[in-house]
Amino acid sequence: MIETLNLxxxxxCIGLICLGLFVFAYILVATEEITHLRKSKPVLVTSGxxxxxxxxxxxxxxxxxxxxxxxxxxxxxMEYGELLLFLLVSMxxxxxxxxxxxxxxxxxxxxxxxxxxxxxxxxxGVIAFFLSTVANNLTTxxxxxxxxxxxxxxxxxxxxxxxxxxxxxxxxxxxxxxFGDVTTLMVWQAGKIEFSRxxxxxxxxxxxxxxxxxxxxxFIPGGRPRVETGDIVYLKKGALLITxxxxxxxxxSVVCEEYLFIPPFMGMMMGLGFLMLISxxxxxxxxxxxxxxxxxxxxxxxxxxxxxxxxIIFCVGGLAELGYLQLASSAxxxxxxxxxxNILIGVISxxxxxxxxxxxxxxxxxxxxxxxxxxxxxxAGVGGSLISIGSAAGVALMGQSKGLYSFLEHLKWFxxxxxxxxxxxxxxxxxxx
Length: 433
Fold this sequence. Notes:
The chain is mainly α. The protein has 21 helices and no strands.
């Protein structure tokens, strides 16, 4: 067990500087769409500065040894390394499926079924809900957003409501699967909730989607988009095989963790090896096609996001050593009962990305039972839907819509989304307490 430094430096000059740097870095992260500064850049710099200051204070003011500092940094690195390898494989599989036209086939089929606007609104929400259990909410939102823009044919109201629906659906779908969201993955890897236990969040997550979806359906314009004839989209060779091995990889990771206590990233890395063998088979069957290279899928992973996670984990880890997480834990979990505290965590995650929020909760280690860990997993996941900047899905769709879907437009429907948020919490407390 790694011992923390417990520097108790929240009121010191170094502590306040570190906190100020983190707040400033996070302001830059939140305004990425305005500044066009990638979110990984400020947190990478800030994490390095924070640990330089933490190490300076710990060594020269408190007398800690080199071994103690190294052990803590390596502990944070281990947490990041497991997350990095797991997500890298997931993203590579997703990129491979995109390259093999899997998602494009779904999009093309939906457009040409001749559905009404209301039917497309509901169907894209349902698909986003289930797709986000295995693909991250950013990928899910971008794929479904492309479907909506292709179907909308200039119908602004349809685009706005559909994008809100997709944000809610992609965030809700991730909470009952450890593979659906980084926060659920973190909770699972931390050993707080077993894999099978996440499934009890299915009904609360579904309610979180259905309440706002059903209300917004009445405001969807009537009629149906015009079906446009064009080239037929075909799945490329190996698409179904890659899809099958993606699910096999997930299953192997779960079984290994549950029964052999092997960290999930090892099962995922083995799955990456199988994906590379499949890519070799595709290249051979395609008569040595030099253009297909699986390492292009690795390169196209969301490296900005992966490096952002590194910065966040080390920033929060440094602030924890200074004593800020203990202070926050006392303020939230010390003054409120666990239920209200975890509801508040969800509200906070609508403003601050749920990843640092959940990582902070895991570092705080509040002595909660299973029901409360499930609750905070639920609220941190779906709380990001309350406003558009609360999740990567909302931020991505604001950029994809080119101004048609905005922060203020999402905010207009805050009461409806909040109603779903409250209903999902009530359902969880009713069913899973």
